[in-house]
Amino acid sequence: MLSSCSLAASKSPAIIVPPAQIWPYQVRYREGAQALAQDLFDALDDDLKPFVLLLALPADDTLPARCLEPVDSDLPAAAFSDVVARGRVRQLTTPWPFPDRDDVTAAAIRRKHQGIGIRDAVQETLNALDGQGQYQHFAGWPVEINGYFVTTVLRLLRKPLRAYPSLQPARYYTDGKPLAPSLLLAAMYRFNEEGVKALSEPEPGASIFMRPRESEELLRAAGKTFLDTPAQALGLDPATIKLFATCNTISSLRYEGAEGVGNLLLARRGHPNIEEVFALTCPTELTDYRAVRKLLEMATPDVHLLADGENVYALGRQIGHYDAVREDLFVISFVTHYAWELQHAGHILMRSHYGLPGLPRPRLSRPAFRKALKRTFALTDAPKVERLWDVVLEASRQKHGTLLVITTEALAEADRLKLQCMLIEPVPLTPLITRLVTSIDGAVLLDPEGYCYSIGVILDGRASGRGDGTRGARYNSALRYVESSDYPCIAIVVSEDGMVDVITSVKE
């Protein structure tokens, strides 16, 4: 996590703080926060382009507000001159939710409650500055350092941010903290919490470091946080209902060697849009994972397991027109082994693959593929682009997944890898031939003209620092090959759960 380790004063050299600084390690803190944001949000969508800024808001009204880091920030400091005063007014008008509590937990909640007003005032100012512009800014919790409320601000591109479905932001935990209406917001909450932890250390930023799998840990935590929302919508206590872990475990189990495929409808019993086919005399707890996995064998495309968030109580189907505003009927779709989706009103809100949550990226985007061809091969000839698109589209329909590699040196690579592939007479790929050659294991090697030279290829390549342990051998071998290639190339990885990744050797 973002963390700062305090050094003993007797061992720390004297540090002279320049007038432009509020504390000695503010640059290092921002750099660490930026690195974490980059890893975390790139894992969700690398078009979000996260950027971290620091605001310094004076506790003393006689001092000016400052855009602390980076020094060339586009945010106008003058716009934040009155946010502390406005925040304090808001704070005074927001009642303390636990008047009778005086324990350690309540004290921590009170400290966060005291920052609500300032954070909200900062966010209001950011919203006004953003308007309908290219970017959207999100304010974190303020932490007081040397007479300033330091606020970590996350900036994301607006267009990709709004491309994903979300629930309404109208539900709250019992302590008044908002529930996350989307996985993206849950990731932001987790990022902000890490920032608060780091800024609250004795010497913030003194030794910020990034552990290799830190962003994955935060992403899993975000998945857990997001699944609290449907739990609360069903009238359950998110503190005791662990839907994310439950769904992961059920999806990981096999029954007599078969992977679990089917839907679990989450709704209160008696929901007007649920019809029971038959009920269980003794409902099965969702945490009785093997029993639920066994029940899933009875599910069909139109008959599903029915659960209230705690127990599976029947098998049945969805009927009538569901009013999405209610947000009280969710679908857990078990796609394949260790892969599942959270759906609401026909929209996929989150996908989980081997315990790692992700956003519902489309199976394949024609504009993104065309952009990759242009960037990698400078290929813009419409007939050639459409020919390759037809090949990739057909490959994406392989239910067991497949791998295509497009490279300018396909013929030479086929010869180099001839001992670990099947060489074929060069042939222009058609949808029919594509369906045939992608039905076996291994990669299909073709050139930008659409000619195929070898099939069943076992790719080689150096180990990549971008490898993903939660993804299969197909994805990681493609990543290694592309990053090791001396020639422009694109790998299209079709996973068994329907995900399609386009990996290019040329970066934007």
Your description of this structure?
The chain is an alpha+beta fold. It contains 14 helices and 21 strands. The strands form 4 sheets. An 8-stranded mixed β-sheet has the order 9-11-10-8-12-13-14-15, covered by helices on one side. Strands 17-19-18-16-20-21 form a 6-stranded mixed β-sheet, sandwiched between helices. The longest helix is centred in the middle third of the chain and has 20 residues, at 214-233. It starts with 25 loop residues before the first helix and ends with a strand.
Contiguous helical run count: 14
- Mean pLDDT, all residues: 86
Low-pLDDT regions: 1-19
First-last Cα distance:
28 Å
Kindly state the number of beta strands: 21
Helicity level? 25-40%
Beta-strand percent range: 15-25%
C-alpha geometry: globular
Spatially, the strands of the biggest sheet line up as 9-11-10-8-12-13-14-15
Please name the defining characteristics of this protein:
single chain; 508 residues; alpha+beta; 8-stranded mixed beta sheet; 6-stranded mixed beta sheet; 14 helices; 21 strands; globular; disordered N terminus
In short:
With 508 residues, the chain is of the alpha+beta class. The protein has helices at 26-44, 83-92, 104-114, 116-130, 158-161, 183-199, 214-233, 243-252, 289-296, 366-377, 382-395, 410-416, 431-437, 473-484; strands at 51-58, 66-69, 135-139, 143-145, 148-157, 254-255, 258-259, 262-266, 274-285, 304-307, 311-318, 330-336, 339-344, 347-353, 356-358, 402-407, 422-428, 443-446, 451-457, 489-494, 500-504.
